[in-house]
């Protein structure tokens, strides 16, 4: 085993896939947005692993689950853009995910801190 190189999956990508739905819902809750705009907002906030190609399947799934709804808005720069807005069901899901995330984050921080208080 000596000299063997072990390649681990990109942890940031794995973590992002686990929380990207919640992040997209949070962006959409702030204001209705289109895909490129959501990617830009995610990147501005430090999630630069998200791309348009990675979010569109998630947006489609969130729409099928009736957490968001899409609608077209004519653009001055070209074809109409598909915007997404939050539904009542989406707001409820986002609130539940935020509660779960906060509890999870607190638990992970406690483990990483070795059980030491702040």
What does this protein look like?
- The chain has helices at 11-30, 35-44, 52-64, 88-112; strands at 33-34, 68-73, 81-86.
- It has 118 residues and is mainly alpha-helical.
- It has one domain (14-108): Arc Repressor Mutant, subunit A (Orthogonal Bundle), CATH 1.10.10.10.
- It starts with 10 loop residues before the first helix and ends in a 6-residue tail after the last helix.
In one word, what is the shape? Answer: elongated
Task: Please count the beta strands (DSSP E, at least 2 residues each).
Answer: 3
Roughly how many Å apart are the termini?
A: 39 Å
CATH architecture: Orthogonal Bundle
Stretches where pLDDT falls below 50 for ≥5 residues? Answer: none
Number of helices: 4
What count of domains describes the coordinates? 1
* Percentage of residues in DSSP E strands: 5-15%
CATH first level: Mainly Alpha
Please give the radius of gyration in angstroms: 18 Å
What is the residue-averaged pLDDT? 87
Class inferred from helices and paired strands? mainly alpha
As a percent range, the share of helical residues equals 55-70%
CATH topology: Arc Repressor Mutant, subunit A
Largest sheet: 3 strands, antiparallel
Strand order of the largest sheet: 1-3-2
Task: Please identify which CATH superfamily we are dealing with.
Answer: Winged helix-like DNA-binding domain superfamily/Winged helix DNA-binding domain
Secondary-structure element order, N to C? HEHHEEH
């Amino acid at each position: 085993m000596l000299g063997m190189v072990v390649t681990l999956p990109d942890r940031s990508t794995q973590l992002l896939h686990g929380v990207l739905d919640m992040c997209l819902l949070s962006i959409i809750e702030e204001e209705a947005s289109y895909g490129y705009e959501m990617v830009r907002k995610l990147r501005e906030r430090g999630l630069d692993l998200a791309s348009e190609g990675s979010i569109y399947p998630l947006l489609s799934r969130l729409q099928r689950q009736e957490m968001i709804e899409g609608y077209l808005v004519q653009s001055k720069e070209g074809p109409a853009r598909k915007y997404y807005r939050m539904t009542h069901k989406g707001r409820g899901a986002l609130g539940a995910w935020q509660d779960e995330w906060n509890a999870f984050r607190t638990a992970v921080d406690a483990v990483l801190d070795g059980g030491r208080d702040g």
